[in-house]
Amino acid sequence: MSRLKYAPNVRVIRLMCSGRVDPQFILEALRRGADGVLIGGCHPGDCHYVEGNYKMLRRYRLLQRMLGDLGIAAPRVRLEWISAAEGERVKSVINEMTRQLQALGPLDLPGKFTDWDQEVIALAREAQAKVAAETEAEVAHV
Amino acid sequence: MKLSYFPGCSLKGLGRAYEESLLPVMRHLGVELVELDDWNCCGATAYMAVDEAKACVLAARNLALAEQSGRGQLMAPCAACYLVLNKTKHYFHDYPAMKATIDRALAAVGLSYAGDTAVRHPLDILLNDIGIEAIRQKVTQPLKGLKVATYYGCQIVRPYATFDDQYNPTSMDRLLEALGATIVRYPLKTKCCGGSLTGTVPAAGIRMVYILHNEARKRGADCIATVCPLCQFNLDAYHAQVRSEYGEVVVPTVYFSQLMGLAFGLPEKQLGLQRAAVPFRWRPAPPPHAHLTLGRNPVPAPTLPMVQLNPEIRIGFYVCHCGHNIASMVDCPEVAGYVGRLPGVVLSRDYKYMCSDPGQELIQKDIAEFQLNRVVVASCSPLLHEHTFRAAVAAGGLNPYLFHMVNIREHDSWVHTDRQEATAKAKALARAAIRRATLARALPERQVPINPAVLVVGGGIAGIHAALTLAQAGKHVWLVEREPSIGGHMARFDKTFPTLDCAACILTPKMSAVGSHPNITLWSYSDVVQVDGFVGNFTVKVRRRPRYVNEDLCTGCQECIGNCIYKEAKFPDEFNEGLGKRKPIHIPFPQATPQVVLIDPQVCLNFKRGVLTDRCKKTCVEACGDRKAIDFTQKEEVKEIQVGTIIVATGFKPFDVRRVPQYGYGTYPNVYTALEVERLVNASGPTAGEVILRDGRRPSAIAIIHCVGSRDKKTNRWCSRVCCMYSMKLAHLLKEHSGAELYNFYIDIRAPGKGYEEFYDKLNEEGVHFIRGRVGEVTDWAMIPEEEGKLVIRVEDTLAGVVRRIPVDMVVLATGLEPHADAQDVRRLFNMSCGTEGFFLERHPKLAPVNTFTDGVFIAGCCQGPRDIPDTVAQAGAAAAEALALIDRGFIMQEPNTAYILDDCSGCKSCIPLCPYTAIAFDEATGKAVINEALCKGCGTCVGSCPSGSIGQHLFEDDEVFSEIAGLLAAYL
């Protein structure tokens, strides 16, 4: 309603409750090239569906540990309690997160997957060449 | 604790007594002060007046030296030094040009300043670092009996009130109280000491010094305690002139540090007390238990306990321009062109208004012509038009759930400023919706019957009107009211603006109608404690508090009240804002509905603090006789009711005027709130309508201050809408009842209603004064003899361009309206939202003003925002009509977004405790979970948590969400 302006690089996925957020949704978004994922939920005690936000909080904490192990910086996945009345907060959170992500630089998992695939292919070729050379040497020896 | 110390010129000159007393006191408290090496002038007074930049450079040198010393904190006891050093630090951070000047000047002498030094005032350190308790422990000679006027002067609170309140600083008060002194109320504590005036316009300066002394003396102060060497000098040095001009009015002026030294038992001679021109002598009162000191070894006084203060898929896509709302920021034809090339899309259009009839007909025509089996519309929020388009799609012969909506207005065009970026975002959102739409499944509609009973919460005029409207339409209404009687605020008003109808005369017939209506069950003195269920089928628990009187048996004869053991009414009467008195057994007001008395167990002799005792003769029971209505054993009851819809009309709370201390409510007895005055001028009020003040006088001049707790950044920012009008009403009534001169102090007169502006004109004709300006303060210190014994309004008359002092006898504060203190709890109870100011949030400010985000829950009256009685009644009628519209349809359509169990459920039961609606059960026969569709609300928490992914949710299936993610990020692949 207040038409507060914020950074245009956010894409919204509507779910009924933060409790519906499957951690796989977050991983999928990152895998497909998102630099960060913001989950918005009702304030603690104010959940429209009683306590779905608490369930999300638990999953979020576990997911953060896993993301840490994967080398994905914590600020890339953020959980924020924002009520329907807090347009100003939507603005500040999105702008702040955008700044943080810009400072962190692109995550570019699709690009990394391509690099890693090429690395694996190169390693495989190297191994094949080595095996071929050994076989050739063996044949020559015989 | 170690700090740098900046004495400044005063503490080495005229204010030596300050340094002499402060240093030993701080040492005594374990604070090590290291005088700044090679300090220079702080830059105050003359420098600051002539060249601010040079003054700041001077101050910055001291700040730089302090930073260099490695001690991050610099104590500046002199108020002027404290202000200038602080100001320089602020300027350094706020103004790049000033920073550059300072940097350049400091560099010239090989110094630099990073801007970190904290400038601290001794009071700040004493209260916030050392603490009152530690100081109290050091007191050996309590200042028992010493009456002190605390005087802070202008500089430590203006403009940077860093550690204390700007208007009413209390740090020195708390400090000296801890020393045992008594603080006299001194409204001049932050006023000018006469400062520079004594040297330039001596007569004016001396007069200011006189006023300060005279007010302190009038209030019985033994001394004035200062924190500023300039104030101390001014008050002390001109004693002779003041005496010769005004007589014996002078009171000794001391530094707070000198009083601390005395209380700590430090040698008097070392505290610089001898330096004052007006000598201050203080002989401590003999210690308590003095009679035990007969022997040679005095027995120490016992330490007192300390008191702590405080498929084939054929998709049709439409992008709406929404006039300019979307089209101005999003290139709609480009989005339509882009989406038209996506797989599955057979048709893509852009149109000016999709929600219009031609827009909806376009969709229906296209479904038939192009055999569309999916429709996607990119327009506004689904909250606004999802049902519009679903209905249009259904009318076109397609299942409504094969429609999907994209929000490119609230989530895009309205919140971005770059057209290219906004268009890119609209394309991404549309692409995601197209991918998702291919997976959409046709779903059956869910119909649920509606219980025709309605719960109305709150028995003010809004609740009363809504309840009567529904009851007259033949619906059963449960009206729950927190207070013992319905009527709300309106019952307490004397007259209503602008017609001057008597509020009671127009309200009480409606109250009686509620009390006697067969379709209304009125539960007063009751609270809603729990609400379960959903639209059409709510289960509500109501707590009925005991009134110790059986409602069915009490006839309202009130004989019990006359026979109460208390012959005189002596307890503050809530209905009359405490201005009148009542007995323990009472009826709130003569027309109270229900006509049932109640007993206040806090004051009834038969109870002692709510617990039944045997201390009373129970004369009320005797008087009640055979009716046997009085029941001391009545207990709180929780009752459960079933309703289909709920109207919340909980009203407002008047602003707590104590939050604006400068207006003196609670300090000056003749300062009243508007609601108090409503009772005061009421013929059945505590004074039978005569304007008699709390001190028994009759006022000859009355001030009404508008916007108290409204349009104020410090309290509430909103306009309370009704105050201008009720202030004018009260002005009229007060003038009529007392003949006094009436002054209205306003910011703007807001009279936007039928007959409202005319009412303002009428008041002008009646000779009521209107002065435009926000009142600075209400005080009782007299500047001229005419002001003696009066309340003085200090205000800037912004139309005349002068500052005025207007003496009056009575002050009325036009208190604003704010949400109830427990509005957040009520919001949670009914699953509503609140706006930023705390009022309940309507679904749409223009198009759904009585609906909330929870279906079946409506709001009416001031709980949604301040409004007057006509608007409240109109809104209550609208809420009743909305409830009737639901009830008379007989059923509601529910969103089929329920969760369901898939065949591969392993039966781990982990979802069962997650469901807040206990909709999930375990089927022992199949070894799988089952979801009760009727109980499921569709939050999807179980779906997101199922370890084996065996729970699906209609409308929010995993594959739908994944396809949406893929669509949003497709550009990156």
What keyword list fits this structure?
heterodimer, A: 142 residues, mainly alpha, 2 domains, 2 strands, B: 973 residues, alpha/beta, Glutathione S-transferase Yfyf (Class Pi), Chain A, domain 2, Rossmann fold, 7 domains, 5-stranded parallel β-sheet, 44 strands, 19% strand, globular
Structural write-up:
The complex is a heterodimer of chains A (142) and B (973). Chain A has 4 helices and 2 strands; from the N terminus they run H-E-H-E-H-H. The mean pLDDT of chain A is 91. Chain A has helices at 23-31, 52-69, 87-104, 109-141, and strands spanning 37-41, 77-81. The N and C termini of chain A lie far apart (84 Å). Chain A is mainly alpha-helical and 142 residues long. In chain A, 55% of the residues lie in helices and 7% in strands. Chain A has 2 domains: 1-107, no CATH class; 108-142. With 973 residues, chain B is of the alpha/beta class. Helix content of chain B is 32%, strand content 19%. Chain B has a 5-stranded parallel beta sheet, covered by helices on one side. Chain B has a 5-stranded parallel beta sheet with strand order 30-37-31-32-33. Chain B has a 4-stranded parallel beta sheet with strand order 2-1-3-4, with helices on both faces. Chain B is globular, with a radius of gyration of 36 Å. The two termini of chain B are 61 Å apart. The relative contact order of chain B is 0.06. Mean pLDDT of chain B is 91; it is low at 287-310. Chains A and B meet through helix 1 and helix 2 of A and helix 18, helix 19, helix 29 and helix 30 of B.
